[in-house]
Amino acid sequence: MPLLPQAAAAQSSAQARGEALLQRHCAMCHAVGRRGTSPHAMAPPFRTLGRKYPIESLEEGLAEGLMTGHPEMPEFRFSPRDVGAIVAYLNSVQEP
After folding, report:
1. 36 near 45, Cβ under 8 Å?
2. For residue 25, what is the enclosing H or E element?
3. Angle, CA 24 vertex, CA 5 and CA 76 arms, to 5°
4. In sequence order, what are the residues at sequence separation of 6 or more whose Cβ sits closer than 8 angstroms to the Cβ of residue 73?
5. What are the CA-CA distances from residue 13 to residues 67, 69, 79, 88 (Å)?
6. How confident is the model at residue 6 (pLDDT cuts 50, 70, 90)?
7. Residues 35, 79 contacting (CB under 8 angstroms)
């Protein structure tokens, strides 16, 4: 069932916010979008995360602090609103 226009706009807004957050905090190591390689060799492109983890399983780590990752990865903690936006964006860019 297609989203109602208002719901689609809210989802699109959340995805844009999630992308902006990831560009600001993560793009120095990770490929954030649908193409490109990650600047850091040990940092997976975000479009491939769904191969290893269900994207929704990252919610807790994003809220409480991700401790796993490449060795040079700083710890990040995001608000519930930001976590929702990041997850919405990550779901939108996953490769099949």
Report:
1. yes
2. helix 5-25
3. 100
4. 29, 43, 66
5. 28, 28, 16, 10
6. low
7. no
Both tokens assigned to 36: 């490109």
Residue ranges with strand state E in the chain: none
54 falls in which pLDDT band (50, 70, 90)? very high
How does residue 66 score in pLDDT terms, banded at 50, 70 and 90?
confident
Give me the domains of the chain, ranges plus CATH numbers.
5-93 (1.10.760.10)
| DSSP-based three-state secondary structure for 48 | helix
Q: What is the pTM of this model?
A: 0.84
Q: Band the pLDDT of 89: cuts 50, 70, 90.
A: very high
